[in-house]
Amino acid sequence: MPVSCLICFKVFSTQSSVNRHLKNVHKQEKNNIISYPYDHFNSKCLEENCGTSFRFISELRCHLETVHNKTMNKENIFFASEEEFNPWFHQICDNNNLEYVRHKQKDQPITYFNCNRSGTYKSNIEIRKRAIKSQGSCKIGHKCTSQNILNQNSTGQYCAQYYKTHYGHTIEVQHIHLSKETRINIATKLASGVSVSR
């Protein structure tokens, strides 16, 4: 499969040729990021005239920073335990109207929290019991760059790598799942006469 340079988009037959090109022409060290045609993977670059996709969100973030000069805000935060991480993470989500989906592989020290807007809506009309919501699916058809990666190191300390920048969508409260308690609270306020705008 042909491989293209992420800076000038020149096409090469192998990744080693791209690495040599990056070092000699663009004065960059080895870069193992391989770009693919737009429909190949779900980590898609949405920039005009780019048309590339990547295997991993981390590769998309690197591409957006190096090729398109996008800022991908990242913060590393350390915690003594997962119990210390949880309230911080829930506060970040609540204060910013965000929601993340947790992914953890069995027997691995890393937990991924991906933006809930990432992915593609898959309709299965035969087994669907409810109609789709009026605002539509929260899925954006590709992966968002916002992610929180919680990793436990050898000393037992936890490091959260928080990638704050969302890509390909805006933050919209209608795509956040509300807890039963929050829904009841809102319904009570509406029933008591509080306006929707408040």
From TrEMBL:
InterPro entries named among the record's database cross-references: RegFact_GeneExpr_CellDeath (IPR052797), Znf_C2H2_type (IPR013087)
Every C2H2-type domain range: 3-31
Top-rank taxon: Eukaryota
SMART domains: ZnF_C2H2
Gene3D superfamilies reported for this sequence: Classic Zinc Finger
One GO MF term attached to the UniProt entry: zinc ion binding
Keywords, sorted A to Z: Metal-binding, Zinc, Zinc-finger
UniProt protein name: C2H2-type domain-containing protein
Native organism: Ceutorhynchus assimilis
Lineage, broadest ranks: Eukaryota, Metazoa, Ecdysozoa, Arthropoda, Hexapoda
